[in-house]
């Protein structure tokens, strides 16, 4: 059976989304939206003057997290997401902006709707877990 004939339930999310080119497109759109949309201004401000390093790190992380090559872990070891994000003030507003920006990027890059719903739920759970302040 060729990969193209597999049903989505038999594919990893990485395969379902379209592999590295689509993960890169998603990450690039996510960070482009931060620069373009006033609704994500606080999120953008938290990322410093340049987004290049963040783009690469999120791409590497998402490839492995979605079931593809584990580039992030190869480079940096275990992601330890909460620890790595502790220097940043993350409350409900920041969580919601991150998830909204990612959801918009998934919609604009053509992530299949059933996968988009699953990923949004997972992103929300992870983003909520990374909150380090109440508001």
From TrEMBL:
Keyword tags: Heme, Iron, Metal-binding, Transport
| Organism superkingdom | Bacteria
Q: Is this entry keyworded Transport?
A: yes
| SUPFAM superfamilies reported for this sequence | Globin-like
InterPro entries, alphabetized: GlbO/GLB3-like (IPR044203), Globin-like_sf (IPR009050), Globin/Proto (IPR012292), Globin_bac-like_CS (IPR019795), Hemoglobin_trunc (IPR001486)
Q: Which PROSITE patterns match?
A: GLOBIN_FAM_2
As one GO molecular function, the record gives: oxygen binding
Residue runs in coiled coils = none
> Has keyword Heme?
yes
Q: Which cofactors, by name?
A: heme
Q: Which family does it belong to?
A: Belongs to the truncated hemoglobin family. Group II subfamily.
Q: What name does UniProt use for this protein? A: Hemoglobin
**What does the record give as the organism's lineage?**
Bacteria, Pseudomonadati, Pseudomonadota, Betaproteobacteria, Burkholderiales
């Amino acid at each position: 059976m060729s990969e193209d004939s597999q049903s989505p339930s038999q594919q990893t999310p990485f395969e379902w989304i379209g592999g590295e080119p689509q993960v890169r497109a998603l990450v690039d759109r996510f960070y482009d939206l931060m620069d373009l949309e006033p609704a994500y201004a606080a999120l953008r401000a938290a990322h410093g003057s340049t987004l290049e390093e963040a783009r690469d790190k999120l791409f590497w992380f998402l490839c492995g997290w979605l079931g593809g090559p584990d580039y992030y872990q190869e480079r940096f070891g275990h992601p330890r997401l909460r620890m790595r994000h502790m220097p940043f003030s993350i409350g409900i507003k920041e969580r919601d902006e991150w998830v909204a920006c990612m959801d918009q990027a998934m919609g604009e890059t053509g992530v299949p709707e059933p996968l988009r719903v699953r990923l949004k739920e997972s992103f929300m759970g992870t983003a909520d877990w990374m909150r380090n302040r109440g508001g």
